[in-house]
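Two folds, back to back.
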Amino acid sequence: MDTTQYVEIFMEEAKEHVQSLNHSLLELEKKPDEISILGEIFRSAHTLKGMSATMGFEKMAELTHLMENVLAKLRSGEAKVTEAVMDTLFQCLDALEQMVQEIGDGNSDNINIEELLKALRELEQNQQVSATSEAVQEELIDAGPLEEPSDVLDSVDVEFNHYEKKLLGDAKEKGMNSYFLEIKISPSCLMKVARAFMVFRNIEEIGEIIKSNPTVQEIEDEKFENSFTLVIITKYVKEKVLQSLNTITEVTVSRMEELNLLNEQSLQNYEEEAVTEQQEQVTEKGKADTETSKKTKAIQTVRVDIERLDNLMNLVGELVINKTRLEQISQTNSTTELNETIEHIDLITSDLQSVVMKVRMVPLEHVFNRFPRMIRDLAKDLKKKVDLTIKGEDTELDRTVIDEIGDPLVHLLRNAVDHGIEMPEDRMAHGKPEEASVSLEAWYEGNNVVIEVRDDGKGIDSNVIKKKAIEKEIITAQEAEQMDENAIVNLIFNSGFSTAKAVTDISGRGVGLDAVRSKIDALNGSVALETQKDKGSKFTIKLPLTLAIIQALLVEVGTETYAIPLSSIDETTYVADHNIKRIQNREVMLLRGNTLPLIRLDQELDTPVKSEDKEEYYVVVVRKGEKQAGLIVDSLLGQQDIVIKSLGKLLRGTQGLSGATILGNGHVALILDIGTLI
């Protein structure tokens, strides 16, 4: 069988199971006596084994098979969850993750897992677990949630609602037979859903199915193991039913019993039961509706190739540009019909733009999920005790931002554990808890998302930073004396700055935090640091929700039009020429008692000017982190949705510019990069 066409689907599902394993193993380490967690781990390993065996990835199948054996011993109580067991299981998880990556790259057998297989066999020690017997597998699978039910009933004491009872009662009155069936599908079957469909088809030819467990929808979605149960009504005898099902390959009827539970029940009680049920349904309606909507929402999802989403966004961008053009045409050729049509197009375009933006949004959970395991391993290597708290993982960001934000967060968290957190004995000596606290939190703030990384470690000593900065000639001793503590601490973002005494595998490679700032600046974001000696540090990252279509203020400078992102603007004002002062040879103005540095855009961008002398100037007050500046422009053209276009390879990285946009009249306007301007 050619399985290459299924590799992409296998990759997606395997990554989900690996992530589930990661989360469950971390939970198991904290709660080693929780049997339900073991059940979840077992199911993920069991599913991975089946998937990999089907696809022909033998190493992955063998590894997950031995993991099942160890998990079975843990579940039965023959073995305990120890540090050695957890370390081995985590190593298995790392190997699985690496295997999935290799399969994606087209190499399925490049990983050497002999040592891992040996370690897993040693964990079984004296009492060998027999290739995880079917009974143990079913027991473990049954311990999990209903989303992967196997629900093999021990009796035929099935609960029926009023309608089902009525059907069974009517069937008995008509002399028909009611049967309970347990259907098993061979574990080696590659197409379980197809076999289940054949069972349904054959039964419906000779009778009627009135109950299925799992439900028909769950069976169609392959949310079942290798068995399911049915209750059927038929005029045929037991042998005829068995004959119709035994013709299906890889399917066996493991149990079949005639239902007699209605023999002793009086049908006169049905109406009373119906009334009771209706009353209960009214009481529970709100709750049921909510649950149904959640299930429907969960089922009705599709995976879409990211390239298609990018193409869709580009088309919406073109629509936005042409909408602006239509608005300009309507201003010069004003007619009632045209204005009404344009207003309608404006509404539709805005709604479409909003929908496409939401489709591109991805929860930060996709980035945050990797950090608990990373912190656990780091703390273990450094012999430190760290408790990681994550909040706001459901906060959503544009996919393009999500793809880029992972590395800066990894750097900040590794630095917090390596540099910020003290050894347990040092913490206790300073009156702190032995276990350090590191928190990662995200929330919305206007059109931005704020991500905060905080620790309760030793903080950053400004004197150490100052000494190192002078030593590396980043600043002079004279400059250091004039700088406040906050400015000195923020020198750690300078290129090549590092306070590490030795290069390690964790941090201190001399890269410092300049890589973090560079990456965040490239995303039109900002990063700020607050620290207090012996109390801890807090890094605050602010990012735009999206990098595709943004709101901007269009301004005119000389003969050119520029766009300034609204997310960078605090306010607009104006200043009289005689109120512009000079401090240290730089132009400034007073804004409500505060000194505001001024930037003349015509000089900074070398733009041809219309007139030299003016009595008043428009000022756009912009912000980058804690710093403010006033951009002097000739006129304010108004607010507008703009589509960000790349400047291309030739102009990439040009200081003061972050991209370009096409205006409604077809002209190109450059988008200002406030960070580099300030």
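---
second:
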Amino acid sequence: MQEDHGHRWLRWPSDPTRARLGFGADYNPEQWPRHVWDEDMRAMRAAGANIVSLAIFSWARIQPSEDVWDFTWLDEVMDLLHGNGIAVDLATATASPPPWLTTLHPQILPVDHDGRTVWHGARQHWRPTSPVFREHALRLTRALAERYAGHPALAAWHVNNELGCHNVYDYSDDAAAAFRVWLRERYRTLEALNEAWATTFWSQGYSDWGQIIPPRIVTSHPNPTQQLDFKRFSSDALKEHLRAERDVLREVTPGIPVTTNFMVMGETKGMNYADWAAEIDFVANDHYVLPGPQSREELSFSANLTGNLAGGRPWYLMEHSTSAVNWQPVNVAKASGELARDSLTHVAHGADAVCFFQWRQSAAGAEKYHSAMVPHAGEDSAVFRAVVDLGARLRALDGVAGTSRTPARAAVVFDWESWWTAELDSHPTDRLRYRQEALDWYTALLNLGIRADVVPTSAPLERYDLLVAPILHVMPGALAERLRGYVAGGGHLVTTYFSGIVDEHDRVWLGGYPGALRDLLGIRIEEFAPLLDGQSVELDNGTTGTLWTDRIDLTDPATEVLAWYKTGEQTGRAAITRRQAGAGSAAYVSTRLGAAGLTTVLADLAAHAGVTGELPEPLRGHVELAVRGDYWFLINRTGTPLDTTAVTGERVGTAHQPLEPHGVQIVYRGAG
């Protein structure tokens, strides 16, 4: 039986008893001459850095050929960092195989959907299911663990890097063989698989396991359940690699915590992080601000979800940017104050370490135009001055370190399998975007000044008075029963179009939509009515719907209509409904209203659930509130200064002064 490691945080070698916030970056000294390392140590001390991630892309430097190893440079860097009071989150260096390995063993290279080999020359050019790659990766992992097991700088292990960022879906023969093994474990018999996949459709019945392949390029739409299972398998294959490296590290260095960096942000959806979170000793995440009108709401949403994947416990922001990135179509530098605001928003949602990619901006290579703590302009720059200021501010917040996120009364449910499945092909519309709908509901809650959590379906849902579950498309029977129990227990559920439609095998719940939630909601829909591009409908509450409508029939006298369609094919029919069920209720929103429209709708739904904002009325909607124990984080969502004196408590690091535009104040509200 595997040992239960629970939640273990960074091992601070210099003072393991002291709680502190981590501050630092990815450090890549191998890119620079030796004399720069000494400059780095001095500048890190000036910035207040106390931890770095090291050796992430160093495999070719550590092992320049199959039987040659070079640890001398890494030994020196580890010693230098320790001598300067900087802890190390040491990577296993397996993210990017060196050219000698892929030349000797080209069978480790991934194969894309169209059957093309993905060659070396970038990064992550390896098959998650390759036994050859696994052998070499674990050999390197063991060598690093054995060499640095007793090193005083070692604070944590960093498995690989951004697992699945570029290689989550591999269609190679290795993947096909592993997929069959995974399917046999899931279904046990071909009869069960054929039933789950509905292979009677299009004559797809399998008579031998060897006939099954990944959903490679085909003439038409691939089997949808095959696609869903391949997504599950691909996430699991990466998880298995994570486990393999982790187990070596735990064997050799049982006292050192192990993590890997998730990518909870934007449309990165191939990895089911709700399923991965239990595999590591503490959660870590990489996040980069995405352009657009909801850029900061998306940051808050992602940080919030990460904090709840961590079970409310502290987590590690392993990467974000000081300013511009290099991988967007247009890469805009951050405005003054945004570096601190972005960093502190992550802290507000539970991050106990704030780190960047990277320490020193590269002079060459694919990421040379990606910002860093020390930019090309050097230390005499606005970016570095902002870094130093942030370091000082984080030191003043050491009292926050170790505190847990305080649960809210409202939550937005986020489900990876619904995300995967709702956006498959051959659906009523291919314009549906699951994460955007969830983000719009979260933004609406922020607009109303209501603090809300973003939680996976595995979270204890009963703790919330108001539960928003947008496009909860995949509805296993057990989850439907949990939601019925939630409402019966007095909870107030809100869900939307295309929810409750299929079970875990992507098989439709028959009898009318919304399937498994039909009776709970007290409605029945015979046919979907998605909207064409450019079409919209008006509701009688003043909002405008796009993307989708439903032809709703009310099936229970307890179901009331909160809004009606004023225009379009559904004119005169219900658009938003709510059914009372004992002390609880279940509401349904049948069209896409966007963040502004949802703000109107949520005002009533939240009031019905008895959920209101915790800030004084004038600040609600203008200030985002996040709570960690006795600490309130006030995040200005506007471009104007705000008077927050009505929020009582001791300002941490600032006097009683206006909350600056897009700024952050921390208020200690504890006793004494």
